[in-house]
Amino acid sequence: MEKITCILCPKGCSIEKKEEGNEIKYIGYGCTRGLEYAKDEFTQPKRILTTTIHVKDGELEFLPVRTNKPIPKKLLFDAMAILRKVEVTAPVEVGSVVVKNILDTGADVIATRKVRKKSFF
Amino acid sequence: MHEYSVIVIGGGPAGLAAALKSFENLDDKRILIIERDSFLGGILNQCIHPGFGLHYFKEELTGPEYAQRFIELVEKNGIEYLTDTHVMDITPEKEVTIVNKHGLKKLKAKAIVLAMGARERTRGAVQIPGTRPAGIFTAGQAQRFINIEGYKIGKKAVIVGSGDIGLIMARRLTLEGIEVKAVVEIMPYSTGLRRNIVQCLEDFGIPLLLSHKVVKIHGNERVEGVTISVVDSDFKEIPGTQRFIECDTVLFSVGLIPENELSKKAGVVIDERTGGPFVDNTFSTTANGIFACGNVLHIHDLVDNVTLEAETAGKYAALYCQNPELFQKGKLTNIIASDGIRYVVPQHLNRNFLEPTILRFRVNNVYHDKVILLINSGKKLLKIKKQYLSPGEMESIALSEKILSQMDFSEDIILKLEDDK
Ligand SMILES: Cc1cc2nc3c(=O)[nH]c(=O)nc-3n(C[C@H](O)[C@H](O)[C@H](O)COP(=O)(O)OP(=O)(O)OC[C@H]3O[C@@H](n4cnc5c(N)ncnc54)[C@H](O)[C@@H]3O)c2cc1C
After folding, report:
1. Reported pTM
2. CA-CA distance, B139 to B120, in Å (whole number)?
3. Where are the annotated coiled coils located (chain B) (predicted)?
């Protein structure tokens, strides 16, 4: 019997996976989204990655970014290694794509903050 | 002196939501937001992690994205705001003294919304002996350095305190290639949200040491390590359990304190339990025409709740400009936190506004199998079963129209915990 904690909302339901013969059962989820989460979490755990990347000519030096969907947990550090080397140029809008389909995960890395061009006056 | 209807102090999520609701409800639209930082958005700008907006927007956003939605509405509506501007003083007459690069200025408001947020407790607050080397930060300070300024703050870290900010920084440091040796928590439980314990510690195998405390910080120029110890139920060190952990960085995540220095100057009375003003269900403080919301009022774990509360404060601040007499203080019913409940906000109900109201509260310990009871003139008006309650998670109950219709407002409203038999 394995156990995970659902993280979709602050409730934090504890969900168990039970194998009875060929049947797999999940116990303890509080909603259908929780059930879907549990199925994924037991087979292929995924996480949204957030970090910052360099931005040139911006009113800020660093741009916060995130993957637009969760990516496999085991790829988090590989994705970080890529993003450390990425640089974009201001202006940047929220939601604009900075890396497409990172590590073939199907997820794009997008900007989470608007950064205007630096003004020199 | 330039006059506004509503002046909002603080441009974080609380200030932005309050300003937007005042704007909706105010005919003259004379509103000003004042923010000391260079950008609107408050602490959300440095909270680049996901987990915001699940309740309010029904989707998961990062802090800057959540803030951006409100900033855009503020700009679209042409609501006036000043950044890089510090509010130095407010008076009970609602005069506001500001300072910025243009100098000092006085403004006048009919109503003020306090939305200054909170500040972090520091190493001093937990009194740890040892030297004062470089490498000691509060968690929020480290968050700002890393997420906004882009510094690498160390190589090996120990985090003191397991509140959400500490947990989130444990993950952030790990992703940045900084080894987090442990999160050290003096209580037998974490005060952080469960999803953060899972996603920030368990995901990366970072040990959470409960009932442990840092008893000494070592190092002269730079931190060289900490000594930790197991503690007993009185938080005293248990002899023989001391252990040295080598590290060059220590992050303190030991709680937030509502930022109320200004509020006090305006004669706002502070509730010792929340650290924020006493308010009624219109979020009116004890000072006429001064409202409060967000972390300045009490510390929130979820920004969604901040927004909802701020919308109410903003709506009533606008109404105050038109009908100040409705806000007289003679018609308040007390809402009292008792047995097991540490505090409740609002602390009063204004009988001129008997509208459905959400009571937000925290318990004073971890509890299993309890009922939350709402009692008025000896009657139990509401009973909610709870399998698990923790001080780390804000709870709420609704005073619905139905419940309000059963109340005797000459008597206190009492909120307490009881065993679930
Ligand atoms: C590190 C951290 C992580 C968090 N993580 C999450 C999360 O994952 N999910 C979630 O839902 N919530 C999270 N929260 C909680 C949520 O972000 C806060 O509850 C919320 O931002 C509080 O909003 P506020 O507007 O009251 O305060 P703030 O955002 O702090 O804004 C207050 C503003 O007032 C300004 N100010 C203060 N004094 C003055 C003055 N005298 N003059 C002018 N301006 C002034 C400050 O500069 C600041 O911009 C987190 C909070 C922190 C601190």
Report:
1. 0.93
2. 8
3. none
Which ipTM value was assigned to this complex? 0.87
The 3-state secondary structure of chain A reads CEEEECCCCCCCCEEEEEEECCEEEEECCCCHHHHHHHHHHHHCCEECCEEEEEEECECCCEEEEEECCCEEHHHHHHHHHHHCCCEEECCECCCCEEECCHHHCCCCEEECCCECECCCC
What fold does the segment set B122-254 form as a domain? FAD/NAD(P)-binding domain (3.50.50)
- Dihedral angle computed from the Cα positions of residues B166, A86, A65 and B16, in that order, rounded to the nearest 10 degrees: 100
Q: What is the pLDDT of residues B43-94, one digit of tens each?
A: 999 999 998 998 899 998 999 999 999 999 999 999 999 999 999 999 999 9
CATH topology assigned to domain B1-120+257-327: FAD/NAD(P)-binding domain (3.50.50)
- Give buried/exposed letters for B210-235 (b at 16+ CB in 10 A, else e): bbbbbeebbbeeebbbbbbbbbeeee
For chain B, what are the domain ranges? 1-120+257-327, 122-254, 330-421
Best residue in A4, A50, A98, A119 to probe B by mutation, most B CBs within 10 Å?
A50
Predicted pLDDT of residue B128: 82
Per CATH, B1-120+257-327 and B122-254 having the same topology is answered yes
Ligand 1 contact, B295 CB (< 6 A): yes
Q: Indicate the residue type of B390.
A: S
